[in-house]
């Protein structure tokens, strides 16, 4: 018993000394506060490592490349964000958010909006996402994340929470940022879609139609816009136009058209529909 | 002779009480594995085969709310069931359960809630059946997450 205790303590001491030595070595080799050092680690282990895995995030090598960066310089926020990608996609939210929280701690300017995006789109944590986007707005006024303004995501969150007045305000700010206030320019078709959906939810049929038709002028095959336009016509007891747009929605979704956002492979966007909802609505011939 | 009887009793007791099983790689709702040997098994998720469940989150939400009727539960956060879908489009392997609170920290929900949600999860029967280059169907990994607020299901992921 005594011998095994001594052996265990010796091993423990050896492990500590070894770790101290390697830490000394690390600090001798890596000046982790240097941007040049950080960039060179990202280039070596991410650009020429993880990135070469062709987006197969579940390859164990993905974690090894990210861990290599973190082990050498634990202050590189980018490595935590990238390490979390498979976890968020695979439903492992504890791991995903502990890593993204670390990224935000290390670089709030760079990663607060991204975390808000994950909460808004992936975990449908709309209250949490609004907090992140409001903070991000202070850090980078008029900023963008995943091709959309922070206002857009705040608008989505407020729409889903039923805060329609706030959502309207957010989407109008989004449109102003996108168009620089030029009313001749059209905003992104997904902004137009969601403004149309917002007015549909508010039972404001005229404005719902206006925005959904504007959206369809930009992307006429978008099944969601056709579907919600059909629902507006349903509200107006216009069965002819309701059926027309439902049929377009069914045809286009069957041909493979859909919401043009990268992450729809992983999650449904707010209010996103599938062929199932269109067919259910077609079956339901009764006009409200 | 004693052991089979003992194991059977444990299994029966587990089903009745909704006991979860903690294995090396996580916590599971069951230990049943119905792997079809003729079913190619790739380590891919639904999103790699365009296999998101073919109903919107709001349709699934309405379904689960109707399934649970007016039963009352408690707690807020996320409950995720993750398993493999076989080449017949059916749940294939033991189902992992992941539970976090609203702040994404590990928590444990009432077993009755887990069991009821798992019963609903098992009713999902419209999973895609993807095929490989040789037109042979294969199995893949899926998950469904239930978002809860004060015991009520308020959203479904994906």
Tell me the layout of helices and strands.
The complex is a heterodimer of chains A (288) and B (158).
Chain A: H1 2-29, H2 35-47, H3 60-72, H4 77-83, H5 85-89, H6 93-106, H7 108-122, H8 126-139, E1 144-145, E2 148-149, H9 150-161, H10 164-179, H11 189-201, H12 205-218, H13 223-235, H14 239-254, H15 275-283
Antiparallel strand pairs in A: 1-2
Helix pairs in contact in A: 2-3, 3-4, 4-6, 6-7, 7-8, 7-9, 8-9, 9-10, 10-11, 11-12, 11-13, 12-13, 13-14, 14-15
Chain B: H1 2-17, E1 21-23, E2 26-28, E3 41-45, H2 57-68, E4 77-85, E5 96-100, H3 111-121, E6 139-149, E7 152-157
Parallel strand pairs in B: 3-6
Antiparallel strand pairs in B: 1-2, 2-5, 4-5, 4-6, 6-7
The major pleated sheet of chain B works out as: 7 strands, mixed
Following the backbone from N to C, one meets helices and strands of chain B in this order, namely HEEEHEEHEE
Q: Give the proportion of residues in helices of chain B.
A: 10-25%
| Uncertain stretches of chain A | 1-22, 24-28
Query: What is the radius of gyration of chain B computed over CA atoms, rounded to a whole number of angstroms?
Result: 17 Å
Overall geometry of chain A: elongated
Largest beta-sheet details of chain A: 2 strands, antiparallel
The outline of chain B comes out as globular
Per DSSP E runs of 2 or more residues, the count of β-strands of chain B stands at: 7
Give the count of helical stretches of chain A.
15
Query: Which class best fits the helix and strand makeup of chain B?
Result: alpha+beta
Low-confidence spans of chain B: 6-17
**How many angstroms does the end-to-end distance of chain A come to?**
82 Å
Q: Can you list the strand order of the major beta sheet of chain A?
A: 1-2
- Bin the strand percentage of chain B: 25-35%
């Amino acid at each position: 018993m005594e011998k095994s205790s001594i052996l265990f303590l010796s091993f423990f001491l050896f492990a500590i000394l070894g770790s101290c030595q390697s830490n000394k070595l690390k600090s001798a080799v890596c000046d982790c506060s240097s941007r040049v050092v950080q960039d060179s680690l990202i280039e070596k282990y991410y650009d020429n490592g993880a990135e070469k895995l062709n987006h197969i995030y579940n390859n164990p090598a993905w974690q090894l490349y990210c861990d290599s960066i973190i082990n050498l310089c634990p202050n590189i926020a980018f490595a935590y964000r990238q390490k979390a990608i498979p976890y968020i996609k695979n439903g492992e939210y504890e791991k995903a958010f502990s890593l993204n929280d670390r990224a935000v701690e290390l670089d709030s300017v760079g990663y607060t909006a991204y975390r808000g995006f994950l909460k808004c789109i992936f975990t449908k944590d709309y209250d949490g996402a609004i907090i992140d986007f409001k903070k991000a707005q202070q850090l980078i006024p008029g900023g963008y994340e995943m091709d959309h303004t922070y206002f857009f995501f705040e608008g989505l969150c407020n729409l889903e929470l039923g805060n329609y007045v706030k959502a309207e305000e957010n989407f109008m700010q989004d449109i102003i940022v996108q168009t620089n206030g030029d009313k001749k320019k059209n905003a992104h078709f997904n902004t137009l879609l969601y403004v149309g959906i917002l007015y549909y939810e508010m039972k404001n049929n005229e404005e719902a139609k206006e925005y959904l038709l504007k959206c369809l002028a930009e992307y006429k095959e978008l099944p969601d816009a056709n579907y919600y336009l059909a629902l507006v016509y349903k509200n107006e007891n216009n069965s002819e136009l309701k059926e027309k747009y439902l049929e377009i929605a069914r045809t286009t979704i069957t041909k493979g058209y859909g919401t043009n956002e990268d992450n729809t492979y992983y999650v449904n966007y707010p209010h996103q529909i599938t062929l199932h909802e269109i067919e259910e609505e077609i079956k339901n011939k009764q006009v409200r | 002779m004693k052991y089979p009887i003992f194991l059977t009793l444990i299994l029966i007791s587990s089903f009745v009480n909704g006991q979860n099983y903690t294995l090396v790689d996580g916590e599971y709702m069951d230990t049943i594995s119905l792997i079809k040997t003729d079913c190619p098994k790739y380590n891919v998720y639904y999103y790699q085969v365009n296999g998101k469940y073919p109903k919107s989150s709001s349709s699934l939400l309405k379904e689960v709310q109707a399934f649970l009727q007016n039963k009352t539960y408690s707690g807020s956060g996320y409950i995720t069931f993750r398993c493999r879908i076989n080449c017949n489009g059916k749940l294939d392997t033991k189902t992992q359960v992941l539970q976090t609170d609203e702040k994404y920290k590990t928590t444990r929900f009432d077993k009755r809630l887990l069991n009821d949600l798992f019963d609903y999860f098992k009713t999902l029967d419209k999973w895609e059946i993807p095929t490989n280059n040789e037109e042979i169907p294969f199995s893949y990994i899926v998950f469904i997450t239930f978002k809860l607020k004060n015991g009520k299901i308020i959203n479904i992921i994906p």
